[in-house]
Amino acid sequence: MVLGYFEEEKVYDFIVVGGSYNAIPSGKAYAEKHTGGTAGNCVAGRLAENPNLSILVVEAGTDNPLKEEKISTPALAFQLVESEYDWQYPITFWDRGGEKRHEAKNTRGKVLGGSSCLNYYTWLRGSRPTYDEWVKYGGNEWSWDKCFPYFQKPGTMHDKNQILDHDPAHVAADGPLTINPAVPIPLAEKLQEAWKSQGHRLNDDIYNGTVDGLAHVCHTIDSGHRVPSTVFLDGHKNITVKPRTMVHRLLFSGETCVGVQTHATNKKQSYYARHEVIVCGGVFESPKLLMLSGIGPSGADSMTDLTAISSGIGHSINSPHVGQNIQDHPVAPHAFKLKDGHSLDEVLRPGVKNLEAKAEYKVAKKGPLASSLLEMSGFARVDDKFKKCKEWREEEEQRGHDPLGPQGQPHFEFDFLPCFASPFFPHVPEPIEGSYMTIVVSLLRPLSRGWLTLRSADALDFPMINMNYLDHPLDAVALREGVRFVDEIVLRGDGLKDIITGEYPEGHVRESDEGMAEWLKGRVTSGYHPCGSCRMGSTIDEGVVNGRLQVHGVRNLRVIDASVFPIIPDARIQNPVYMVAEKGADMIKADHPALYQQKESLVERVKGLVV
Ligand SMILES: Cc1cc2nc3c(=O)[nH]c(=O)nc-3n(C[C@H](O)[C@H](O)[C@H](O)COP(=O)(O)OP(=O)(O)OC[C@H]3O[C@@H](n4cnc5c(N)ncnc54)[C@H](O)[C@@H]3O)c2cc1C
């Protein structure tokens, strides 16, 4: 392609939208060095491995996030909700049958680093059959066996204290992210006792495709600091970053994507890519940007035609799945009051213990503030309970398989936090005294799907997002049974039952199905894992991107982030996002063989000759 008519300094080999990195003066402290997005930084860092190429990363968020102690200090992550680093997306939970549940604000990272700077650190990936199902959408490249090396590739596992009883290489191999097992915090021993006493198993080896049991989780924390994705960018001088810069449109020459148009402090600017533009704006912004650029569902009330003209594409590309298929883990959080001293609430609230913890953290980067506040997660199927539910039996008969875990996947993830976890209780006042345990019950394969559309053609407007939680009646029935399952462990299990003194707030109904349905309607919230809004599919009638993550209907444009997932993983999704980013980067390299002479493949070829 001839790019002679563009100003040369604005032309890069690749442009990554949504990522970020700030130049690192050498010798600065760790907290100042490591910033960054999730998929975008990983892709940019890998593409920059050829030092002769230039990579531009455009990030809407602010720079230097780890100067902010709430971002760098692990146990302060809850304080980032509705902070200046949070996009705070207004979302409708549901709007159907004359009933609308409020516009809650959904947290996404708007900093150099995106949601990897705001998340709760846990490193999980889900189970084999779920990825094998991705093959139907993205092709054979997306089977568990093909994804497995890429789950490991982004990180390096450390287990200095030998907390885990399995091979750390299952968790991560030798990538830039440092992964550690969660450090011990209150409740774990009692929780294990209770879990076992109710007939369930302990099992830390949940990284091999089979996910079941109560596990010590691993997380992206190292030496008391958050580890976000900018570690991928360390040392790459060929990456230019534009922080606080929002991409408003993709630019096209015919149907070839040639660049992006940005706005920063009221200044418009265009940047051009010799090879490709890679959109990594996350689940809400990536589909929005496609729609703003003329790629999306067309129809009477669509703005796609209008935006197509301004992006230069000329005519709109009718891509019906853009913004559709949104999935999230709907969660039912609830909190128990504990006998004093069994949680971390006193340490997290202002007071003497908080001052002691701060001092310990300041000096040694150790203690409760260095923890993610989550040591153990449980995974389980609840077949016995589901079989007693008419709604589940009817659905099973109709589909011919378990609708919520067709190939043995766990039905639920249960997260146990030794504190009142405020981000999961947007409408419940935070208690000012006492000890608490929060249990977050996540339905791992919900049947409901949400969607988003443009609110206007203004890139600064939030999209209209309807998560459509509990649209399928079985999702609410399932969550009800998940809450009952875990409450049996907590209220009857050895160890825990003796330290529970009540609930907060009061009024959690357990016995009546109707009562629990009402309780759930007010309590269900986001698991912070939305994905799927630009899902993979082999044609434009089935998805937004193909199995190589290229956008259907145009050239030189990919989407690489949580939005391309066709089916939500049955665990938290940070590790799957990195997996997609690593795979996507390798696909780009493979599609540009002249730019990336793969040393590895040469070695393999030589080895092959020798053998
Ligand atoms: C509060 C919270 C807790 C979580 N906890 C966990 C957990 O414990 N474990 C786990 O596995 N997962 C967790 N997750 C989920 C996981 O972190 C995210 O799914 C993942 O980081 C998303 O990565 P992404 O690359 O898709 O998007 P993001 O990381 O959100 O990156 C998108 C980036 O693009 C930028 N951007 C968007 N639009 C534009 C534009 N037009 N121009 C320029 N820049 C743009 C954004 O500012 C952002 O930096 C959590 C998420 C949240 C929000």
Shape: globular
Instruction: Determine the CATH superfamily of the domain at 162-226 and 328-526.
Output: Glucose Oxidase, domain 3
Mean pLDDT, to the nearest integer, reads 90
Structural class: alpha/beta
Strand content: 15-25%
Which features would summarize this protein structure in a list?
611 residues; alpha/beta; Glucose Oxidase, domain 3; 7-stranded mixed beta sheet; 7-stranded antiparallel beta sheet; 16 helices; 26 strands; globular; disordered N terminus; disordered C terminus; binds flavin-adenine dinucleotide; GMC_OxRtase_C; FAD/NAD-bd_sf; Oxidoreductase; FAD; flavoprotein
Give structural notes.
There is one protein chain. The chain is α/β, with parallel strands linked by helices. It has a domain at 162-226 and 328-526: 2-Layer Sandwich (Glucose Oxidase, domain 3). The protein has 16 helices and 26 strands. Helix 13 (473-492) packs across helix 14 (513-523). Bound molecules: flavin-adenine dinucleotide. The site of flavin-adenine dinucleotide has 41 residues, from helix 2, strand 13, helix 7 and helix 15. Its cofactor is FAD.
Short description:
The protein has 16 helices and 26 strands. The chain binds flavin-adenine dinucleotide.
Question: What's the structural blueprint in terms of helices and strands?
Answer:
Blueprint: E1 11-17, H1 30-33, H2 39-47, E2 55-58, H3 69-72, E3 89-96, E4 99-106, E5 122-123, H4 128-138, H5 144-152, E6 155-157, E7 177-181, H6 188-197, E8 213-216, E9 218-219, E10 221-222, E11 225-226, E12 239-242, E13 246-253, E14 256-264, E15 267-279, H7 282-292, E16 295-296, H8 304-311, E17 317-318, E18 330-338, H9 345-348, H10 352-364, E19 376-380, H11 383-387, H12 390-399, E20 412-417, E21 435-443, E22 451-453, E23 464-466, H13 473-492, E24 500-504, H14 513-523, E25 525-526, E26 557-559, H15 574-591, H16 599-610
Parallel strand pairs: 1-2, 1-15, 2-12, 3-23, 6-7, 15-26, 16-17
Antiparallel strand pairs: 3-4, 5-9, 7-9, 8-19, 10-11, 13-14, 14-15, 18-21, 18-24, 18-25, 19-20, 20-21, 22-23
Helix pairs in contact: 2-15, 5-15, 13-14
The site of flavin-adenine dinucleotide (FAD) has 41 residues, from helix 2, strand 13, helix 7 and helix 15.
